[in-house]
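Worked problem 6 (solution included).
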Amino acid sequence: MYNFLFRVLFYSLLVFITITPATAQSGCNDFKDRCDGSGEPYKYSGQSKSGTFELGQSSSFKISAYGGYEYSMSLCAEKQLKGTFFRIRENSIDGELLYDGQAEGDNMNQKLFFIEDSKPLVIEVVVPEGDKPKQELEYSETIGCVSVIIEYYKVGKKGFE
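Solution. The predicted structure is:
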């Protein structure tokens, strides 16, 4: 009997530990659905990402950008993650910086650009430290959802053929 109760408790705890982080992360999976994109003529890209971030955290992901397409990248973050911005770099040895939202100033959370030749890019999202130390904040004030919405459209040929 004791052995049976121990097993039930052990497996319940194991399931709880395994599912809890996944559930917390999945809370932001649909956050991108609440963010505005550019709309027509752009189409939503499956390379768009959402995630859970906390103050002072940065994270990056890679995308493939195809030649002949114009891209719109938009960032949206929950209000407690004030000042969140993104950067776009080439995914190469030198990692040339193509866009820095922090350098562009407040509310520059969208970038439109044309890709002439296909290339891999790295998108880095940065959530700055808050104005107050984390110890003075409630947990809910230090964590939130962030989405990078990637949209694209094929640019037609221009001029005489």
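Discussion: The longest strand covers residues 143-154.
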